[in-house]
Design brief:
Elements (H helix, E strand, L loop, with lengths): L1 E4 L2 E4 L3 H15 L21 E3 L15 E3 L14 H5 L13 E3 L7 E2 L5 E4 L5 E8 L4 E9 L10 E7 L4 E5 L7 E7 L2 E9 L2 E2 L4 E2 L6 E9 L20 E6 L4 E5 L7 E4 L4
Parallel strand pairs: 3-4, 5-8
Antiparallel strand pairs: 1-2, 6-16, 7-16, 8-13, 9-12, 9-16, 10-11, 10-13, 14-15, 17-18, 17-19
C-alpha cells in the first residue's frame, strides 16, 4: 500500500526504497525537476544496464537486485526531456567532497597475500577523478585476483566501477567494467614487476543508450589477493653536490648514470659537460 509522509507518498517495501524516494524529494529541494520523456514525466530507466535517474522512476530498480544503479542525470539518454545539470545545481548548496587520493597510494597486502577491503578504500569524487594503487610482484611472477566494489548499497550508491591494471611501462594488462554490474574484476597471472591499479567512475553503452561517467561517484573498496608480493622499490636519491665542484654526468654502457666532479673520475661511458 501507500502512505502519506509529509508532502509525498512512499511505498512500504524496504528502507532502501524509502531512501530513494527521500533522495528524489531532496533533489526537488535543490531545484531539480523530473527526468522524463515524451512518454511520461518519470523515465523508467534502462533494464539492459540496470540504470535509472534519481529524478525519474526509481522503482524499476527493485527487480534489478543489488546491481541496480540510481544516478543524478544531465539528460543524456535518448528521449530525455530535461537537460538540467543536477550536480552543478546541487553544488549551489553543498560542496563536493575533496579528493582523497591525489597522487598514488600503495595497496595494502597482508603477509598471506590477502587484500582486505577495510585497508584499501577510496572514493571517486567527480568524472575526471581516478585513483592509482601501486604494488610489486616479486621475481618469478604471481597472480593478481582483485575485486573493486562500491561500499555503499543499492539504496543510494551511484558508483559504477571501472578498473585498469597497468605495468611499469603503462601498458594495459587487464581492464574491467562489466555491463550491468557495478563491480570490476581483475584476475591475471603476471610477471614480476611494479603494477598500478587505476580506478575511475565507469560508463556503459553510450550516453544516449546507456549512461556516461557523469554521476559515477562514491566510495569503493578493494579485496582479493596478490601472490608473491615483492618489496616496494625504494628510489635511489640523486648524489648530493659538493659545494664549489664542477659536475659532469657519466652514462655507462649498461645505462647506469654516474655523477662526479669534473675530471674527478672516468668510467665506462660518455661524459655530458655543461654548456660553456
Amino acid at each position: 500500500g501507500a502512505n502519506r509522509c509529509g508532502s509525498f507518498n512512499y511505498r512500504q517495501r524496504t528502507g532502501y526504497g524509502l531512501g530513494r524516494i527521500t533522495l528524489h524529494e531532496v533533489g526537488h529541494q535543490f531545484g531539480l525537476y523530473h527526468d522524463g520523456s515524451p512518454a511520461g514525466q518519470y523515465f523508467n530507466g534502462l533494464s539492459a544496464y540496470k540504470w535509472t535517474p534519481v529524478m525519474g522512476n526509481v522503482w524499476p530498480g527493485d527487480r534489478w537486485g543489488s546491481q541496480a544503479l540510481y544516478q543524478w542525470s544531465i539528460g543524456e539518454y535518448r528521449s530525455a526531456n530535461n537537460q538540467q545539470d543536477d550536480l552543478q545545481l546541487i553544488q549551489r548548496y553543498i560542496t563536493r567532497r575533496a579528493d582523497d587520493i591525489v597522487g598514488t597510494r600503495e595497496l595494502t597486502v597482508g603477509g598471506d597475500g590477502r587484500v582486505r577491503e577495510a585497508a584499501n578504500t577510496g572514493k571517486i569524487t567527480d568524472r575526471t577523478d581516478s585513483d592509482s594503487w601501486t604494488f610489486t610482484v616479486g621475481q618469478g611472477g604471481g597472480r593478481v585476483d582483485l575485486t573493486v566494489d562500491r561500499t555503499e548499497y543499492l539504496g543510494g550508491a551511484m558508483l559504477d566501477v571501472d578498473a585498469t591494471l597497468r605495468d611499469s611501462s603503462g601498458r594495459v594488462v587487464a581492464q574491467s567494467n562489466p555491463t550491468a554490474d557495478r563491480r570490476a574484476f581483475i584476475d591475471r597471472t603476471v610477471a614480476g614487476g611494479q603494477y598500478t591499479l587505476v580506478i575511475r567512475g565507469g560508463a556503459e553503452g553510450t550516453p544516449r543508450n546507456g549512461f556516461s561517467s557523469y554521476s559515477s561517484l562514491g566510495n569503493y573498496g578493494i579485496y582479493g589477493s596478490v601472490t608473491n608480493v615483492g618489496p616496494t622499490p625504494v628510489p635511489t636519491p640523486p648524489p648530493t653536490p659538493v659545494p664549489g665542484a664542477d659536475y659532469l654526468t657519466l652514462r655507462g654502457s649498461n645505462g647506469r648514470v654516474f655523477s662526479g666532479a669534473r675530471f674527478g673520475f672516468l668510467s665506462d661511458g660518455y661524459a655530458t659537460y655543461p654548456a660553456e
